[in-house]
Amino acid sequence: MLFKDRRFAGQLLAKELGAYANRPDVLVLGLPRGGVPVAFEVAKALNAPLDVLVARKLGVPEQEELAMGAIASGGVRIVNKYIISLVKISDEVIARVALQEERELERRERLYRGNRPLRDLQGRTVILVDDGLATGATMWAAVVAVRKQQPTQIVIAVPVAAPETCHQLEAEVDKIVSVSTPNPFQSVGLWYENFPQTTDEEVRDLLAKAAKNDEPISIGM
User: Fold this and answer.
1) What percentage of the chain's residues is helix, strand, coil (to nearest 5)?
2) What is the pTM of this model?
3) Residue 72 shares a structural domain with residue 84
4) What pLDDT band is residue 118 in, cutting at 50, 70 and 90?
5) What is the pLDDT of residues 57-72, one digit of tens each?
6) DSSP class of residue 133?
7) Contacts of 180 (CB under 8 A, 6+ apart)
8) What is the domain-level CATH number for residue 13?
9) Which pLDDT belongs to residue 214?
């Protein structure tokens, strides 16, 4: 399946999540930046509040698309020991990359949320949304961050995913919903007709629009 764009993909994904519509315990969390336009459509269709959970991949230096780990809000850091051993990455390199990504994570937290804390996730059904799952590193970090807050259920929802990544994450969550799991997968962008980089302003705009149907939020500069 080829998706027209992230908004259209979110609309199709929402149809797969109908069982979660109009439930007061449901919260949709988009992974910025690309996951937010998808999550916006899901939250709107489900009549559920929308928020973001910031996660960042730790890319191997000079091979940034290769994830050696990831970080997420709440001080979460995970590492892929296999990749680290394979590429022979030192602890110093990991620390340097992690520090750089932590600064970007903090920047995005301030930009998207301002002084507003992440919603209380305890006892809730949390639907984590991204525009696709390739290696799954950032989603894995997001799952760890959410689990720390003791939700009742964690659901991963994406328009497209690599089958092997779904298999790896199945044991970490209660459910994975994907509109399409093509094999071979190759990359997320391959399955979209239009796949421009989502901007910070687009994320802020969508959060503000979602907030009009929920509780007021203040997004700081």
Assistant:
1) 40, 25, 35
2) 0.93
3) yes
4) confident
5) 999 998 888 899 999 9
6) B
7) 1, 159, 160, 161, 191
8) 3.40.50.2020
9) 66
DSSP state of 47: T
Query: Quick check: helix, strand or coil at residue 139?
Result: helix
Task: Calculate the CA 35 to chain-centre distance.
Answer: 6
Say if strands 153-160 and 125-129 run parallel, antiparallel, or are unpaired.
parallel
The structure tokens 């497209």 sit at 160
* C-alpha 61, offset from chain centre: 22
d(CA 204, CA 35): 13
Structure tokens at 84: 């680290």
For 53-150, where are the E strands, in sequence order? Answer: 55-60, 63-72, 76-79, 125-129
Q: Identify which of 176, 113, 126, 132 has the alpha carbon closest to the alpha carbon of residue 10.
A: 132
**By C-alpha distance, which of 45, 50, 47 is closest to 10?**
45
Q: Is the peptide bond before 96 cis (omega within 30 degrees of 0)?
A: no
Domain match, 78 and 159 both = no
Q: Taking the mean position of all CA atoms in its chain, how far away is CA 136?
A: 9
Give the span between the Cα atoms of 170 and 30, in whole angstroms.
Answer: 19
- What is the domain extent for residue 157? 6-55+119-211
Q: Are residues 95 and 155 in the same domain?
A: no
Task: Judge residue 136's burial from the number of C-beta atoms within 10 Å of its C-beta, 0-12 exposed, 13-18 middle, 19 or more buried.
Answer: buried
Please give the Cα distance from 134 to 9 (Å, whole number).
16
Length of the chain: 221
